[in-house]
Amino acid sequence: APSGARCPACGGAALAPSVQRDVLVELAKRSILAKLRLPDRPNVTQPTSRGALLTALRRMRAQRTDAAASTPHGTVPRLRPGVQEYEVLSFAESGSSTPRSVRLHFRFAPELAGGTEILEAALYLFWAAPGRGTRPVTVRLLQPDPAGLNGTVAGETRLEVRGAGWTALDVGRALQNLSGRGGRRLTVELEAAEDGGCPLLAAHGGSHWPFVAARARARVPRRVRRR
Amino acid sequence: GVDCVGDSRTCCRKEFFVDFKEIGWEDWIIQPEGYHMNYCAGLCPLHMAGIPGLAASFHTAVLNLIKANNADAAVDSCCVPTHRRPLSLLYYDRDSNIVKTDIPDMIVDACGCT
After folding, report:
1. pLDDT of the residue at A14
2. Which of A131, A202, B25, B86 could share a disulfide with B102, CB 3.0–4.6 Å?
3. Between the CA of residue A76 and those of A70, A73, B94, B102, what are the distances in Å?
């Protein structure tokens, strides 16, 4: 405001109540989208089932409680205040499958791939009852490879599935690498040691849908110190 | 901070709620049901400058009033948020993933004069 003028916040011409409401609603919309780094409101074509969402949230909370209990002082380290943090649940999309293997695809939004730092991430898989004994399963994390169709192996774990229930695997490093390269797609390949091992993985849908739970925070530009 | 009541003209906090259902955003924002945005409105006479709300010291107000009377080209101070808190959102992103985040400084809790 020019010198001697009134503060624009105080002295502006009053708007008609209906116009003022529209202006404020528009301001609220723009503010939320800008802070979420979304150019426009997302169009949700495949909403997750309520059961799957509630199960995923419960698993995340249980993991958090376990982590808090295992730290020396019984608390999860807190981040700096004011730094925007995200918790992301990415549910699997089905990919190709054979009698021995199945592929799951996870897609991450570009704003989470590029501008954020992945702090931790876990892949949750629910196994149906495998019958008697244990069943070995190999879990491979594949990242897209521009040169080939199969992708590059970012990690591999061998599991002995003993019974029905959830398994959580740390995929933080793989997701961090993916994020660093600006990648958006992570593929998980599950391979059983023998044919017919695939039914080990519970059917998709319902509340046993495989998912990745990740925690990320917005990258803060480094400060330059002057002495 | 002071909440606006009736026709109050001095700096105060006006409540403003954006219902996500009303604006057609309930399909991608899972929680909460709306946004308590709120905003600051009202006049800030110069002797009120630097007072966060009306509960500050009487002496500060008197000193500011003296300063205001002596100023040649005084500019009114602004009615601005003095305390804000984050808005927690659980929403679907563009890939139908579910994201939970706390957006800092989104809800105006209190207003005061600069």
Report:
1. 63
2. B86
3. 9, 9, 30, 17
Q: Which class for A8: exposed (0-12), middle (13-18), buried (19 or more C-beta within 10 A)? A: exposed
**Are the Cβ atoms of B98 and A107 closer than 8 angstroms?**
no
pLDDT at residue A76, as a whole number: 45
Q: Is the dihedral of CA A189, A190, A192, A196 positive or negative?
A: negative
Mutate to test the interface with B, among A32, A40, A45 (most CBs of B within 10 A): A32
What is the number of H-type helices and E-type strands within chain A? 5, 9
pLDDT of residue A27: 92
Q: Which residues pair with A155 in a beta bridge?
A: A141
CA neighbor of B49 nearest in space, from B65, B69, B71, B28: B65
Structure tokens at A32: 């939320």
Pairing of strands A85-91, B98-113: antiparallel
ipTM of the complex: 0.78
Using a CB-CB cut-off of 8 Å, the residues of chain A touching B94 are 38, 42-43, 109
* pLDDT-flagged residues of chain B (< 70): 46-76
Q: What is the pLDDT of residue B55?
A: 45
Report the DSSP beta bridge partners of residue B103: B87
pLDDT bucket at A163, cuts 50 / 70 / 90: confident
Pairing of strands A101-107, A116-127: unpaired
Give the residue-averaged pLDDT of A215-220: 79
**Chain A: closest CA distance from residue B58 (Å):** 23
- Kind plus residue range of the DSSP H or E element containing A173: helix A172-180
